[in-house]
Amino acid sequence: MKTSENEKWIRVALEEGRRGIGLTAPNPPVGAVVVKDGIEIARGWHHKVGSLHAEKDALSKLRGDEARGATIYVTLEPCSTHGRTGACTEALISAGVAKVVYGACDPNPSHGGGADKILETAGIKVVAGVLEEECEELIRGFSMVQRQGRPWLIAKTAMSLDGRITRPKEEGQWLSGPDSREEVQQLRVEADAILTSGETIRRDNPALTLRGPRISSEKTQPWRVIMTHQGVNQKGFQIFEDEWKDRTLTFQNRPKYEVLRNLSEQYGVNTVLLETGGSLLGSFLDEGLIDEWVIYLTPLVTGGPKIAVGGLGSENLEERLNLKNVRIHQVGRDVCARGIVDRGSLKPLDR
Question: Catalytic positions, please?
Fold first, then answer.
């Protein structure tokens, strides 16, 4: 199928928007490109909360009336309310753009669709829903907070071929290979918080920090969140003593949904990466709170009692969790599978 002009330029806007993944919370990552007479004249993206929105970032690179009569392509419906930086709809009207094409609607129920009426009243043509699914994927953490009151939760686990997390002594705290561990650093860049258990802290003494030359210097260390029943003696654990100790949070005997909601409401978290053992991982699974899975399968058979995913388990095939949009690739000696939880396969939770 031939790619339409709208799709072509929204893809460019998506490229820009992806530059903001993991940097913009509590705002969403957004990209924009300005096109005039079929030629790109500016592009922009939202860098961080409080900075210019993508539309304004793109417009700021133009002089005088350069934007007049142009089309702007944006991954997300332009904001129509005044926040830290003012409404983007006003900026677009003032710039004299002739047409606005965007992908995803604003997931905030009180704002969604509001831009269309404002822009059309000003004589600007609006086209909505172009590559909507791809644009919605870009803002899924923000959307989850707006619609469900909690962050998007990515579960990451590394396991042997027999589904264990038992580690040979010579492997230290890692089961997966060095290439997988490097890739996990990129996963951490996507996250605003990394969640683990008190048991994992006591057993492995992990740092849960961003490391390596590929990590963006613009990325703030994610919050390190510990869920525990019996608490953690802070002495001797690096997560409480390193330079990022002020970004370590401990929740003792708190319901999981309450912890997630607190992270979004109090700490501006849109995306959480769950890096923990089988027990806590399984309990999040039981409560239907996992939105995405990243599984690293390493070519070892370890045996032993430490399973990768605990919990109550499914009683029948109808209760099993299904993944969609699954992507599989090789990472050094390991294989990685990443997929989105199919919400149609989950029973709704009563809260």
Answer: 55
Retrieve residue 176's tokens.
Answer: 């997966």
Tokens describing residue 324: 């969609």
Helical residues (DSSP H) of 20-167, grouped into ranges: 54-59, 88-95, 114-121, 132-138, 140-148
**DSSP SS3 for 171:** helix
Q: Which domains does the chain have, with CATH numbers?
A: 5-142 (3.40.140.10), 149-345 (3.40.430.10)
pLDDT digits (tens, 9 = 90+) for 124-182: 999 999 999 999 999 999 999 999 999 999 999 988 887 777 665 555 556 777 888 88
Alpha carbons 291 and 281: distance in angstroms, whole number: 12
Give the C-alpha separation, 316 to 212, whole Å: 43
Tokens of 225: 């969140």
| For residue 309, pLDDT beyond 80 | no
Cα 247 to the center of its chain, rounded Å? 19
User: Per the omega criterion (within 30 degrees of 0), is the bond before 26 cis?
Assistant: yes
Quick: pLDDT tens for 20-37: 999 999 999 999 999 999
